[in-house]
Amino acid sequence: MNTASRPDFGQRRERDYWRAVNRLLIFLIGIGGLVVMFLFFYPELRRIDAMRENLAQLDKQNADEALLLRQRQREVNWLNTDPAYVELIARDKLSVMKEGETVFRLDNDIPIENQLSQPAQ
Q1: Which terminus of the chain is less hemmed in, N or C, by CB atoms within 10 Å?
Q2: pLDDT, tens digit (0-9, with 9 covering 90-100), for 41-69
Q3: In the 3-class helix/strand/coil scheme, how is 18-79 assigned residue by residue?
Q4: Could you state, in order of their start, the residue ranges of all structural domains in the chain?
Q5: CA–CA dist 33, 14 (Å, integer)
Q6: Does the predicted model carry a pTM greater than 0.85?
């Protein structure tokens, strides 16, 4: 047996040990790099989420405003084209009446919950 050509068992074990340590260090450096990248991008991810929430809120507000705009445009169209609607608005909101007409308007200023708690007279 030629012992000079075969590496010693101790040297082989030491070489395997350093190879394992080297692989472990490379793995830990990779994990550390991923952690640093995550910490670098985390504030941006939070900012993007906040912007998405803000966008959703603005989209809802935009839809509400678009609905209100359509209602107002419809009312303007009725005011411009429908004399019966103009008369209805004048009678209801402005208390305008025709000549020789008597209007009886009953306004109840007491809220419903107060009416229930008051004794009957």
Answers
A1: C
A2: 999 999 999 999 999 999 999 999 999 99
A3: HHHHHHHHHHHHHHHHHHHHHHHHHHHHHHHHHHHHHHHHHHHHHHHHHHHHHHHHHHHHHH
A4: 10-101
A5: 28
A6: no
